[in-house]
């Protein structure tokens, strides 16, 4: 079997060790010859790099491993780049979540003003790593988790239309695990139909391989419990704030009960509720929860491995997030034609939605990448919400390209999460100040 060379961009990410563990777990299905980490923060990456070097020496010494901040070393001779960078790191995520609160609007990593601000930062970092990849390994695929995926995907469509970049999100797979628990099946036994934008979609069908439809059964469950399940099958989204989010799916479903909603719709359908909730502890947002939780946990484990000089007895968690990206690499590498929900250019997949919108739909994935499956026409309620949101995402990318203050103001004004043009302007001026050189200068 062919052996592959993989670089993880954003090597210092809290998700890097989980993906490495998952890769090691899958060597029989997806063999590796080289594994590299790349980051532009040397000190942060070094901790995970050193620990993983020890772990790999013990568990898979045949794989060449290195970590680097040099783009040429990182991107030369690679088949896949698994990317998850966070431009501005946790310090800026904290601002994305806290700045909007000053203006009476909730703050979130990928939705509303926080997501818009993060989008403006991410585009520059994404273009940088795409260009490195194409310069040093022109045939490489980038499998990209870097957020906000909707804006990043639109930026790729506009600015790097021919690049081999696939944008993905782990929320549909994480939630499918919960659905599988609800109906007593394994996730891989279920096949879905789904339409939407990233962090903005609905399941229209959840069937087993024999064709039995579980939509009604899952709807009954969600209308009572949301996506809260007894056993934590989705081990990634377990912190108290996530439990709250899974529970809230019950109220999202109540608005449009025909389909099963993505949990992220709470930010668009219940923004006032999210804001009131955040106002109770404005100094402690999700960024703080992660810094004291996942980030601390992952880096503490890495430090322990370095201190012991061995990874024996110290593992890292593997979750749906890692499973999905490794399965995707495998689908391309071995032309498996697996069915996966991905972010792609619409081109008729949602019949009554613009061709040039980046949408999230099931695709068949093989050696040439994803082939979207047609989802037909969608109802007016979902269509109107999606059209408003996709226009926000397009305006952000246009604002980035044209360095346009006016278009950013329009993007924030149009976001369903912002109450008026006045608030949007005040927010924009504050975001410009707080994001400094991370944003292009707008005029
Ligand atoms: P993190 O801050 O721990 O890791 C991100 C790393 O990227 C940092 O080490 C940082 O130094 C590095 N980085 C920033 N800019 C860079 C650049 N230009 N070049 C190279 N490296 C750069 O963040 P995290 O919480 O582990 O999340 C990582 C990313 O994955 C985020 O964008 C997050 O939103 C995303 N994510 C996406 C999904 C999804 O569903 N698409 C799921 C989980 C996480
Ligand atoms: C889900 C989403 C990701 C998002 C993540 C945030 O997995 O699909 O896009 O980045 O949640 O999780 P966190 O634990 O960092 O708040
Ligand atoms: Mn996501």
TrEMBL record:
In this protein, the active site sits at 170 (proton donor), 264 (proton acceptor)
Instruction: List the Gene Ontology MF annotations in alphabetical order.
Output: hydrolase activity, hydrolyzing O-glycosyl compounds; metal ion binding; oxidoreductase activity, acting on the CH-OH group of donors, NAD or NADP as acceptor
Residues reported to bind substrate: 93, 147, 286
**Marked site: Increases basicity of active site Tyr:** 109
Give the cofactor note. Binds 1 NAD(+) per subunit.
Glycosyl hydrolase family 4 C-terminal domain boundaries: 194-418
A GO BP entry is:
carbohydrate metabolic process
Q: Which domain of life is it from?
A: Bacteria
Keywords (A to Z) from UniProt: Cobalt, Glycosidase, Hydrolase, Iron, Manganese, Membrane, Metal-binding, NAD, Nickel, Transmembrane, Transmembrane helix
Q: Which InterPro entries match?
A: GlycHydrolase_4_CS, Glyco_hydro_4, Glyco_hydro_4_C, Lactate_DH/Glyco_Ohase_4_C, NAD(P)-bd_dom_sf
Give the protein's cofactors: NAD(+)
One Pfam match, by short name? Answer: Glyco_hydro_4C
- Annotated Mn(2+) binding lies at 169, 199
TM stretches of this protein? 6-24
Similarity comment: family membership:
Belongs to the glycosyl hydrolase 4 family.
Q: What is this protein called?
A: 6-phospho-alpha-glucosidase
């Amino acid at each position: 079997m062919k052996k592959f060379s993989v670089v993880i961009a954003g090597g210092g990410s809290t998700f890097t060790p989980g993906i490495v563990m998952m890769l090691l777990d899958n060597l029989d299905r997806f063999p590796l010859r080289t594994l590299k980490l790349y980051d532009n923060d040397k000190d942060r990456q070094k901790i995970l790099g050193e620990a993983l070097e020890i772990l790999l020496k013990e568990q898979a010494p045949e794989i060449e491993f290195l970590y680097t901040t040099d783009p040429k070393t990182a991107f030369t001779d690679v088949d896949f780049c698994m990317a998850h960078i966070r431009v501005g790191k946790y310090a800026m995520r904290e601002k994305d979540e806290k700045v909007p609160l000053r203006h009476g609007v909730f703050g979130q990593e990928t939705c509303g003003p926080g997501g818009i601000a993060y989008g403006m930062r991410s585009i520059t970092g994404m273009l940088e790593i795409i260009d490195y990849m194409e310069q040093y390994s022109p045939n490489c695929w980038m499998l990209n988790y870097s957020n906000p995926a909707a804006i990043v995907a639109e930026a790729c469509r506009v600015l790097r239309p021919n690049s081999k970049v696939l944008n993905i999100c782990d929320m549909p797979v994480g939630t499918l695990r919960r659905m599988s628990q609800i109906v007593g099946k394994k996730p891989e036994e279920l096949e879905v139909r789904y339409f939407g934008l990233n962090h903005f979609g609905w399941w229209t069908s959840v069937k087993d391989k024999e064709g039995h439809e579980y939509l009604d059964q899952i709807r009954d469950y969600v209308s009572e419990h949301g996506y809260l399940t007894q056993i934590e099958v989705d081990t990634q989204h377990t912190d108290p704030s996530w439990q709250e989010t899974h529970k809230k799916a019950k109220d999202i479903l109540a608005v449009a009960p025909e389909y099963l909603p993505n949990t992220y719709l709470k930010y668009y359908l219940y923004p006032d509720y999210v804001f009131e909730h955040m106002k109770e502890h404005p100094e402690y947002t999700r960024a703080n929860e992660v810094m004291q939780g996942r980030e601390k946990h992952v880096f503490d484990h890495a430090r322990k491995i370095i201190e012991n000089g061995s990874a024996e007895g110290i593992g890292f968690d593997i979750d749906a997030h890692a499973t999905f990206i490794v399965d995707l690499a495998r689908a391309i590498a071995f032309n498996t034609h697996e069915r996966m929900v991905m972010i792609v250019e619409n081109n008729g997949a949602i019949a009554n939605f613009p061709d040039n919108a980046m949408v999230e739909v099931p695709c068949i994935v093989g050696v040439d990448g994803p082939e979207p499956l047609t989802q037909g026409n969608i109802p007016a309620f979902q269509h109107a919400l999606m059209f408003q949101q996709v226009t926000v995402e397009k305006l952000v990318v246009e604002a980035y390209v044209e360095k346009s203050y006016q278009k950013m103001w329009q993007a924030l004004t149009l976001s369903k999460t912002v109450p008026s043009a006045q608030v949007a302007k005040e927010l924009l001026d504050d975001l410009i100040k707080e994001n400094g050189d991370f944003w292009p200068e707008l005029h």
